Amino acid sequence: LVTEMNEKEPYNVVRARALRRRESSTPSETHDDMNLLYQFWSHFLVRNFNPRMYEEFRNCAIEDARYRQNGFGMNNLIQYYDEVLNSKKKTIPEILAKHFVDLVNAEDRSKERPGFAKLRAAWRNGALDMKSRKKVDNFVDPQLREELER
Question: For residue 14, which of 55, 58, 53 has the smallest C-alpha distance?
């Protein structure tokens, strides 16, 4: 990874430092190292899926959104789902389709819904791979389907 000062550092060093700083930070604070890690995860995992890395990314993003009042990780997670869903090279894995729909269903309908906006754009985009659409559709309930098609 290339850090703020344009120094190359191994992933495990950046990851360990980011997670250590994350644990010692206040709820509203996000360190640059954690932002860098979120950005790395959201791009790297599109081409190089790693289940353990993905789960760590997902768990940190959800936890930060819930307990730290911080949306940076969640925004990167939504961006990741969007890139995987719209990939022309491969079909979205079933677990990612489920997690994306779960995330959209968990968004507060009285507030901005960035996950819904990305899913709706993909849903309405005629270029969406039919296999990926079918995988997502397996997890969409009638209420969400109606919203997506509006």
Answer: 53
Question: Considering all CA atoms of the chain, what is the largest pairwise distance in Å, rounded to the nearest integer?
Answer: 50
pLDDT tens figures, 94-144: 999 999 999 999 999 899 999 999 999 999 987 788 999 999 999 999 999
Please count the CA atoms within 13 angstroms of the CA of 124 that sit on its side-chain side: 10
The model's pLDDT over 5-19, given as tens digits with 9 standing for 90+, comes to 457 888 999 999 999
- Assign 3-class secondary structure to 77-119: HHHHHHHHHCCCCCCCCHHHHHHHHHHHHHCCCCCCCHHHHHH
Given a contact cutoff of 8 angstroms between Cβ atoms, the answer to whether 60 and 73 are in contact is yes
What is this structure's pTM? 0.90
Q: CA 27, CA 23: separation in Å to the nearest integer?
A: 9
Residue 53 CA to residue 64 CA, distance in Å, equals: 16
Question: Strands, E, within the chain: which ranges?
Answer: none
Select from 31, 44, 29 the least CA-distant residue to 3: 31
DSSP state of 34: H
